[in-house]
Amino acid sequence: MQGEPMQGEPMRRCVSPDSAALADAVRALRDGQVIACPTEAVWGISCDPHSDAAVARLLRLKARDPAKGLIVVAACMDQLAPWLDGLDYALYAPLRASWPGPVTWLVPDNGFAPALVRGDHTSVALRVTDHPGMQALCEAFGGPLVSTSANRAGEPPAMSAADARALFGEALGAVVPGELGEYPRPSQIRDLASGRVLRR
């Protein structure tokens, strides 16, 4: 049913990164760099969604087709307010029912999403994370971040900091320490307008 949270394994309440690690990561993000960090199910790479140079750098690292767009994650719905501005009131219900949690919603773009984040779509992929490390990172940065699996297109995602470093090396501005959540797979993706599940 539309709006029901995805069922799955409960997530370990892992320890958030310490303040020094967060400060290093935030400095890198504000400098337009790409960082690696643990997420709900796999290691990911993140950057400032409003830095075209950073997003382009992330896409090159992944060898990802820019047309596909990218997911943006936040610590709370308030951080997504500009992205949700103008949304029909009725469509907030499924967002509130499933966030924070492992459901990414394709939300109609109101013109706020940068073109490189949106890709060739009329919607933008948004999630409020319940991973403590990602929440702390978004809070320290002061807003949402691009979040995508740490891998090259078509290859398995990194499952550890060592994997992420081996893949991207000095191209990373920072590697945030921490543990993965215990969800068995990356977030479900659903279309907000139709409720259709695009990725289970």
From TrEMBL:
Annotated localization: Cytoplasm
Pfam families: Sua5_yciO_yrdC
Superkingdom per UniProt: Bacteria
Annotated ranges, domain YrdC-like: 19-200
Keywords: ATP-binding, Cytoplasm, Nucleotide-binding, Nucleotidyltransferase, Transferase, tRNA processing
Family annotation (SUPFAM superfamilies): YrdC/RibB
Residue ranges of coiled coil: none
E.C. code: 2.7.7.87
Catalytically driven reaction(s): L-threonine + hydrogencarbonate + ATP = L-threonylcarbamoyladenylate + diphosphate + H2O
Region forming the signal peptide: none
Listed HAMAP family: TsaC (MF_01852)
Function: Required for the formation of a threonylcarbamoyl group on adenosine at position 37 (t(6)A37) in tRNAs that read codons beginning with adenine. Catalyzes the conversion of L-threonine, HCO(3)(-)/CO(2) and ATP to give threonylcarbamoyl-AMP (TC-AMP) as the acyladenylate intermediate, with the release of diphosphate.
Family: Belongs to the SUA5 family. TsaC subfamily.
Protein name (record): Threonylcarbamoyl-AMP synthase
Organism: Halomonas cibimaris
Lineage, top ranks: Bacteria, Pseudomonadati, Pseudomonadota, Gammaproteobacteria, Oceanospirillales
